[in-house]
Amino acid sequence: MPSPHLHLAAFVTAGPGRPGGWRYPDSVPGWLSAKYYQNIARTLEDARFDLAFFADILSVPDRFGGSLDSQLRNGALGSMRLDPLHVLSSMGAVTSHLGLAATVSTTYAQPFTVARSFASLDHLTDGRAAWNVVTSFQEAEARNFNRDEQFPRELRYERADEFLEVTGKLWDSWEDGALVLDTETPLFADPDLVHPIDHKGEFFTVRGPLNVPRPPQGYPVVIQAGASAKGKDFAARWSDVIFCSHASLESAQDFYREIKERAAAHGRDPESVKILPSIAPVVGATSEIARQKYEKLFDLVPPLGGLSTLAYHLDVDLSTFPLDGRLPDVEVPGVEGHYHEVREMTEREGLTLRELGKRYGGRVEGGFIGTPTEIADGLERWFTSEACDGFMLQAPYQPGGFEDFARQVVPELQKRGLFRTEYAGKTLRENLGLARVQPGEWRHRVRRDSAVRA
């Protein structure tokens, strides 16, 4: 049975994020300060959010016209990003329940380093770490890591599969109870309970064991946002949380149904996969105030800033198409889910590419603009219509967008019995309603057509 309570995650940007949002008068440009993120963390924990989530980019995107100009000039998506793991460490120091999720790419990292980093974060936060797994797709990122071009999509997912297999083995390399701390014997750690993994695969050779004991959650929570056929299959096998984006309730319901079915087909309990579509609500004391606020935010969005972000997401140079024409049918090497979303938007509203850029840069996913009661009505409709298990909140501007939602919308959701008033558990898995991962779980997640390595 689905949970009677929805889950809430916050998509926090370690940089300006949305083109236009950073220009809003109430936006606070404290992106280089630890106190900035710590204040957001306290706001989210006071509101009983499940987790704070940080996306990441390993380059300043140059997909629009082969230039950095549209990103840097407009403060767009990838114009500046701090390393999310360091930001999360500072947030973890001032919170005790809030989950902490960082993006790390399987394309340009190594399994031992990632397993060690997230095991360490999980221990230091008493079981609140989460890893957003991405398979980077941008040529600009490839050129920052000794490559002239990106790996093909198929290869990226094959590498990611083996990457998570190895991290699972490493997290299991210390049995529970291996850390003894017997000062009399002496026995610091029981050698019989710590095992090399001796992994030899297509992409990685890793002896192990990890030099960090097994994480409090077994494995840190795994987040993924795959929207292609490959990505959805990968997410249905590995993910505990899936972050997605939809232009309508109907498309969200279709995605929700498909992922739950895919998870069941892989032998998983569908309720063990939490689906959180993105929302970017604009809250006001009245409907008119909310609408005026949205229009002011929208007016600040430069069309080229939005198009630059969309070009990055699709991995398509949109500067080659007429700004006053429609978005054409294109082959999308990047995020297929965003392409389906903007195609749906374009066809429904007849947008030109210029208009699409402005809409994409200032989009309010789900159309949530209004009073706290009106926004709660919309969220309740999505949640009870089996379109989601909760929501990933993107703030139209930081930190005020989080503060408005936490202080105005959350109490309305709590009053309706849709959201917790206190944390249910201590670890992130407990608060998400997920069981601690048992040793050997990676064996059940690898592709069935793969030869499972010892």
Which features would summarize this protein structure in a list?
alpha/beta, 12% strand, TIM Barrel, 454 residues, single chain, 14 strands, 16 helices
Question: How would you sum up this structure, described in words?
Answer:
The structure is a single chain. The protein has one domain (7-175, 201-293, 366-445): TIM Barrel (Alpha-Beta Barrel). Helix 1 crosses helix 3 (84-92), helix 4 crosses helix 6 and helix 13 (372-384) crosses helix 14 (400-415). The protein has helices spanning 34-46, 69-74, 84-92, 111-124, 139-142, 153-172, 229-238, 249-265, 287-299, 303-314, 336-349, 353-361, 372-384, 400-415, 428-432, 442-445; strands at residues 7-11, 51-54, 99-105, 129-134, 179-182, 187-189, 199-200, 205-206, 221-224, 241-244, 274-279, 282-283, 369-370, 390-394. It is an alpha/beta fold and 454 residues long.
Unreliable spans: none
- The name of the CATH topology is TIM Barrel
Could you give the distance between the termini?
Answer: 35 Å
How would you spell out the order of helices and strands? EHEHHEHEHHEEEEEHEHEEHHHHEHEHHH
Record the strand order, biggest sheet: 1-2-3-4-9-10-11-14
Structural category is alpha/beta
Considering DSSP H and I runs of 4 or more, what fraction of the residues is helical?
A: 25-40%
Keywords: Flavoprotein, FMN, Monooxygenase, Oxidoreductase
Organism: Nocardia callitridis
Family: Belongs to the NtaA/SnaA/DszA monooxygenase family.
Protein name: LLM class flavin-dependent oxidoreductase
